[in-house]
């Protein structure tokens, strides 16, 4: 794989990130220790160095397995990303949330499970709508100054919160978010309304989770494999089926798998994007890694865009209406005929 810079930093990461949410067998599914090690071996062999986990994945087992693997490999080769926010124990009222107390406790626990002295990228996992963003930014910057974290990132948070955080950090001389993790795929393009434009503005890399929509875009649900998906899921509706069939058509034309098409689409959007590829089987990962050798034509991308189009809503669609033109100041819009 090739390497890309992660956001506005000098950190070099592989163009596909390995998602490890399935490392562990808690809940009746996932990869056992031996398989998890094989998956990391296969990923590393192909040049992969970017691993994504979280303190709550498989009740901490994911971090523990990565820690065991790291203890027998070159820790500095890997860029290890983990997350804090979600409740990982029931010992106290602050065992969840974005607050500083939970942040510091979670990081210390993650460091122990990961058997490392530092975390390369620490994500705020999900916005709690309680903690002031200045508390978050100051806490992350303190961790970075202490050498326990190298870079800050954020996941599943409104665009205005992220923008406020990065602006505040810039003014205060604190570390800014360099990556944004959100659900993004051909079935879930709504981040294009605000989140992705915001990320582009701040030079953040987008790291999509579920870029294959839980496997829906591989066509497996159309072939009868419903797995653990709920019948009411939006990955099983008429729109999802329509988009998936177009993915299957493009894959057939190119002679590649459907996952290659869906993943490469996210990597061809005109902004810094590194999809997170989860795997619980070695063969599954090896197939997905072949995505880097696939190229979509402009016609293929246009076909996929058309099949997956959605409403931007206001003000996105408003800006695209007839009669809206750039005035001489540039960057401002005037209604020239429809007022």
From TrEMBL:
The keyword Oxidoreductase applies. CDD domains: AKR_AKR9A_9B (cd19080). GO terms for molecular function: oxidoreductase activity. Pfam families: Aldo_ket_red (PF00248). The keyword Oxidoreductase applies. Keywords: Oxidoreductase. Residues 15-308 form the NADP-dependent oxidoreductase domain. One of its GO terms (cellular component) is cytosol. Gene3D superfamilies: NADP-dependent oxidoreductase domain. This is Aldo/keto reductase. It comes from Mucilaginibacter glaciei.
């Amino acid at each position: 794989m090739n390497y890309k810079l992660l956001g506005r930093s000098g950190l070099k990461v592989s163009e596909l990130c390995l998602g490890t949410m399935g490392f562990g067998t808690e809940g009746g599914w996932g990869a056992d220790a031996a398989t998890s090690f094989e998956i990391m071996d296969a990923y590393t062999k192909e040049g992969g160095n970017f691993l994504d986990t979280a303190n709550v994945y498989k009740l901490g087992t994911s971090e523990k397995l990565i820690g065991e693997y790291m203890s027998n490999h070159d820790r500095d080769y890997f860029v290890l990303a983990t997350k804090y926010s979600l409740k990982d124990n029931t010992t106290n009222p602050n065992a969840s949330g974005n607050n500083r107390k939970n942040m510091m406790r979670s990081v210390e626990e993650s460091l122990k499970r990961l058997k490392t002295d530092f975390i390369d990228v620490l994500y705020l996992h999900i916005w709690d709508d309680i903690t002031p963003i200045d508390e978050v930014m100051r806490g992350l910057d303190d961790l970075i100054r202490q050498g326990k974290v190298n870079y800050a990132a954020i996941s599943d948070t409104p665009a205005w919160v992220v923008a406020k955080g990065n602006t505040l950090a810039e003014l205060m001389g604190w570390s800014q978010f360099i990556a944004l993790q959100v659900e993004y795929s051909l079935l879930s393009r709504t981040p294009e309304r605000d989140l992705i434009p915001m990320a582009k503005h701040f030079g953040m890399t987008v790291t999509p989770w579920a870029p294959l929509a839980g496997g829906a875009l591989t066509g497996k649900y159309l072939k009868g494999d419903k797995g653990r998906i709920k019948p009411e899921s939006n990955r099983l509706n008429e729109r999802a089926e329509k988009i998936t069939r177009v993915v299957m058509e493009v894959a057939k034309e190119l002679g590649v798998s459907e996952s290659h098409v869906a993943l490469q689409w996210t990597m061809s959007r005109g902004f810094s994007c590194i999809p997170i590829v989860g795997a619980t089987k070695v063969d599954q990962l090896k197939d997905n890694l072949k995505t880097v050798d696939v190229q979509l034509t402009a016609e293929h991308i246009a076909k996929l865009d058309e099949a997956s189009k959605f409403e931007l809503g206001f003000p996105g669609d408003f800006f695209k209406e007839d009669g809206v033109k750039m005035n001489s100041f540039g960057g401002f819009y005037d209604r020239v005929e429809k007022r």
